[in-house]
């Protein structure tokens, strides 16, 4: 279980594109940008949660608090009952994170080397590392590709290697930040199928996105953010009316008789 309680995150300095008055409005002491504003949220084990919102609404900042990559200014983030800052290693073992651009996290020359990187740092035996690498590659439909060079992979394959690297840590939750950006249709479908399978096998999945179309039939719950605050929280169908105007894309069938108001993203 991931639990955020009254979490507020602020970046020092001026926001990209904010004017002075808006920055003042956001910050109690007038400094910086409040990216996450007093968020309280629980994410149970096994849940498929979509965190949706327009660019700049605070999605990335919010999910980065759960493994200590961003430290809140106030409030508490706990993983399995322990505050993240008290046990960063436990939080990072429990939550696998796949960043927006998988190139940011692929560290080795080969697929096998990359997926083994995390388990190696846990000091596991060779046999256990090999087992985890095989299982993680199988879970992303890349079984037996250990010796492939990262440089030769497509964007979708890199995304799946990044997911495998996170899975090799055997996390309770997998957090993917905009996993479909830049992928062509077959790659999108492949990543989506992997996320669906993982969820079916019991792993919690959190997907950050401004495009809910592919996730509609899969997500248990949608949390919508605007200006760092939770403004929508519920199952997709119940959340739908409140998602309009947040700048997120919903499936066309739900896009109110051709009303494109809620579909401002390209
Ligand atoms: N490193 C940073 N320094 C200063 N301000 C930042 C920084 N990172 C994010 N921000 C600001 O914090 C707010 C929330 O940004 P965040 O990236 O969390 O939102 P997001 O919803 O994930 O957006 P995107 O979809 O564009 O990634 C925005 O106003 C953004 O400009």
What percent strand? 15-25%
Number of H- or I-type helical stretches: 8
Under the CATH scheme, the architecture is 3-Layer(aba) Sandwich
Write the H/E string, N to C: EHEEHEEHEHHHEHEEEH
The CATH homologous superfamily is called P-loop containing nucleotide triphosphate hydrolases
Helix/strand/pairing category: alpha/beta
Number of strands: 10
Overall description:
InterPro entries: AAA+_ATPase, ABC_transporter-like_ATP-bd, ABC_transpr_CbiO/EcfA_su, ECF_ABC_transporter_ATP-bd, P-loop_NTPase. Probably part of an ABC transporter complex. Responsible for energy coupling to the transport system. Residues 1-33 are annotated as: Disordered. This is ABC transporter ATP-binding protein. Keywords: ATP-binding, Membrane, Nucleotide-binding, Transport. 31% of the residues lie in helices and 23% in strands. It has helices at 20-26, 59-64, 88-94, 111-121, 126-139, 155-167, 185-200, 236-243; strands at residues 2-11, 33-43, 48-53, 74-79, 82-83, 95-98, 173-177, 204-209, 221-226, 229-234. The protein has eight helices and ten strands. The chain has one domain (2-258): P-loop containing nucleotide triphosphate hydrolases (Rossmann fold), CATH 3.40.50. The strands form two sheets. The chain has a six-stranded mixed β-sheet with strand order 6-7-8-3-9-10. It has a four-stranded antiparallel β-sheet with strand order 2-1-4-5. It is globular, with a radius of gyration of 19 Å. The model is unreliable at 15-28 and 257-266 (pLDDT under 50). By secondary structure, the protein is α/β, with parallel strands linked by helices. A hairpin with a 2-residue loop joins β9 (221-226) and β10. It binds adenosine-5'-triphosphate. Adenosine-5'-triphosphate binds next to β2 and α2.
């Amino acid at each position: 279980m991931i639990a955020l309680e009254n979490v507020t995150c602020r970046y020092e300095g001026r926001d990209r594109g904010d004017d002075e008055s808006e920055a003042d409005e956001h910050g109690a002491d007038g400094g910086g940008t409040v990216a996450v504003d007093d968020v309280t949220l629980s994410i149970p084990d096994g849940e498929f949660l979509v965190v949706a919102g327009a660019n700049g609404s605070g999605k990335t900042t919010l999910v980065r608090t759960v493994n200590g990559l961003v430290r809140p200014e106030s409030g508490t983030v706990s993983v399995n009952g322990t505050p993240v800052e008290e046990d960063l290693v436990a939080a990072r073992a429990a939550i696998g994170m796949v960043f927006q651009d998988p190139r940011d996290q692929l560290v080795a020359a080969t697929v096998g080397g990359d997926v083994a990187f995390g388990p190696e740092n846990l000091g596991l035996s060779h046999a256990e590392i090999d087992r985890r690498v095989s299982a993680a590659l199988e879970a992303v439909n890349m079984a037996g590709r250990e010796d492939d060079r990262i440089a030769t992979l497509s964007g979708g394959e890199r995304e799946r290697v990044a997911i495998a690297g996170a899975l090799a840590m055997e996390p309770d939750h997998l957090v993917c930040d905009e996993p479909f950006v830049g992928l062509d249709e077959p790659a999108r479908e492949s990543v989506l199928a992997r996320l669906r399978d993982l969820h079916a096998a019991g792993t919690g999945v959190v997907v950050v996105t401004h495009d809910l179309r592919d996730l509609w039939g899969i997500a248990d719950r949608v949390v919508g953010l605007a200006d760092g605050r939770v403004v929508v929280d519920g199952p997709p169908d119940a959340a739908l009316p409140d998602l309009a105007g947040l700048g997120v894309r919903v499936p066309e069938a739900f896009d109110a008789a051709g009303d494109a108001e809620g579909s401002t993203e390209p």
